[in-house]
Amino acid sequence: MAPLKVTKICCIGAGYVGGPTCAVIALKCPHIQVTIVDLNKARIDAWNSPDFALPIYEPGLVEVVRQARGRNLFFSTDVDKGIEEADLIFVSVNTPTKKSGVGAGFAADLNYVELATRRIATVATSSKIVVEKSTVPCRTAESMRTILEANSRPNCRFDILSNPEFLAEGTAIADLFSPDRVLIGSLQTQEGIDACESLKQVYANWVPPHSHCRPLVFRAVQLAANAMLAQRISSVNALSALCEATGANIDEVAHAIGYDSRIGPKFLKASVGFGGSCFQKDILNLVYLSESCHLPEVAAYWRQVVEMNEYQKRRFSKRVVDTLFNTITGKRIAVLGFAFKADTGDTRESAAITLIRDFQSEKALVNIYDPQVSHEQIWTDLQEASPLAPLNTIKKQVTICKSAIEACKDAEAVVIATEWKEFKDIDWEAVYASMNKPAFVFDGRLLIDADKLRKIGFTVTTIGRPSSTLV
Ligand SMILES: NC(=O)c1ccc[n+]([C@@H]2O[C@H](COP(=O)([O-])OP(=O)(O)OC[C@H]3O[C@@H](n4cnc5c(N)ncnc54)[C@H](O)[C@@H]3O)[C@@H](O)[C@H]2O)c1
Ligand SMILES: O=c1ccn([C@@H]2O[C@H](COP(=O)(O)OP(=O)(O)O[C@H]3O[C@H](CO)[C@@H](O)[C@H](O)[C@H]3O)[C@@H](O)[C@H]2O)c(=O)[nH]1
């Protein structure tokens, strides 16, 4: 039998991966009906909102949804109908770090994957290709297969594929339009190979053959890729501490290192610490996998990447306090940026959350501005970071502002926590005029022209460079 030609796709999970990924599939494959389903009604309503106020901010996403929605792209809370109608189903649900039980704090919580799989088994009355898109540990496909086969109806077969997603937030649409690679894993049976071919044909609508559809040999490849990327940042951040202590400049060091073609120039930007929903979670997962395989030295090696990241955040907060004459009690600090990186509204594991919690515990007053993160999200994150403090108490210390200029007014210090381009172009003369003196700027993202700001009168502290008095 020839491989199935996919005509209807369902994606379970309308989040940062499921939404953009399947919206792009719909755009590029007008002959395929794509339905993205989620249990979260508010999220689906936002995807369907008449004014395209989508639940996710991603450059280029609105344009994609605008073209495909209502044509061959649909968003729905009717999970069962989506499953029933589809011939290929992406499982793109969240896999957060487990909070309790065996592996708490390290292992991935696979409960959402299992629930989605069980739902497919319960609802499906015809054969399906089920694609594991979420980041999951090795052998999850086998578990899914066991659940599906144990519960399937007669004449209903399920072929399971692994197809990890490598998009980065902020550049998701560009990454999806031109992926570096598409990996697909399947059983090496004729049915598995055919299912793989069916998914390949979907991607072949826009991904050039040289970059697509390499067979997946090791499901942990995504954990490995993320661990290597995060390790690069922790390495450069460790060097940034040395640069601050010795009088070197991390940007110059990174630039020089990047000329070595074996190292390359990308992902060498020192920062206040990496964030996002993936790096920490995936490394902790790798630590767990290493420990489960009785490889404690390997586990310790990867754990150190996360510890260095925590150290980097702590070090930065301490530098702010030290520079402001060893106390920030009652002082107003403007934090510019709350998202974990620029061009996203996502705040998961954002370094800004840790910095603000540190400033709060030093009894500072904090003004926050971010161009994309909702106020509601900021309050939720701050409450989660300080669970013992009532929200009202937090609100007495923290103010969310409508612009960077407003946040900086009457502040003693400005802290750049996210590299939003607009912070580069602020009227820094006006900011200086509105601040208390001496006016300090702490650049946690190597974003601003420190010399220009010093000329205006600011005392500038930049990650990976010695303090201004030494420059
Ligand atoms: N965010 C990224 O940049 C990124 C990139 C690559 C891979 N990943 C991986 O992709 C997966 C999804 O990540 P995300 O950031 O999109 O998560 P997310 O939390 O933004 O979205 C997951 C969605 O799944 C929904 N969901 C959970 N269980 C469901 C069920 N049984 N039925 C229907 N809907 C259900 C949730 O309501 C949520 O809206 C994770 O495994 C993650 O590690 C994420
Ligand atoms: O030189 C750098 C590059 C990144 N970062 C920080 O690292 C974090 C992660 O950035 P990035 O990797 O660009 O974003 P993510 O959306 O987390 O994407 C990562 O995680 C995804 C989920 O697994 C993968 O699909 C992507 O390939 C992988 O890059 C952010 O806080 C960045 O600010 C730095 O500090 N310095």
UniProtKB/TrEMBL annotation:
Q: Name one Pfam family in it.
A: UDPG_MGDP_dh
**Which molecular function GO terms apply here?**
NAD binding; UDP-glucose 6-dehydrogenase activity
EC annotation from Swiss-Prot or TrEMBL: 1.1.1.22
Q: Which UniProt keywords apply?
A: NAD, Oxidoreductase
Catalytic reactions of this protein: UDP-alpha-D-glucose + 2 NAD(+) + H2O = UDP-alpha-D-glucuronate + 2 NADH + 3 H(+)
Task: Give the pathway.
Answer: Nucleotide-sugar biosynthesis; UDP-alpha-D-glucuronate biosynthesis; UDP-alpha-D-glucuronate from UDP-alpha-D-glucose: step 1/1
Q: Which residues form the active site?
A: C278
Coiled-coil spans in chain: none
Question: What does the entry give for GO biological process?
Answer: glycosaminoglycan biosynthetic process
Q: What class of enzyme is it?
A: oxidoreductase
UDP-glucose/GDP-mannose dehydrogenase C-terminal domain: residues covered: 334-450
Q: Which GO terms describe its cellular component?
A: nucleus
Entry binding sites for NAD(+): 13-18, 38, 43, 93-97, 134-135, 169, 278-281, 348
Tell me the SUPFAM superfamilies matching this sequence.
Answer: 6-phosphogluconate dehydrogenase C-terminal domain-like, NAD(P)-binding Rossmann-fold domains, UDP-glucose/GDP-mannose dehydrogenase C-terminal domain
The record's comment on protein family reads: Belongs to the UDP-glucose/GDP-mannose dehydrogenase family.
The name under which this protein is listed is UDP-glucose 6-dehydrogenase
Organism of origin: Gymnopilus junonius
Taxonomy-wise, where does this protein's organism fall, top ranks first? Eukaryota, Fungi, Dikarya, Basidiomycota, Agaricomycotina
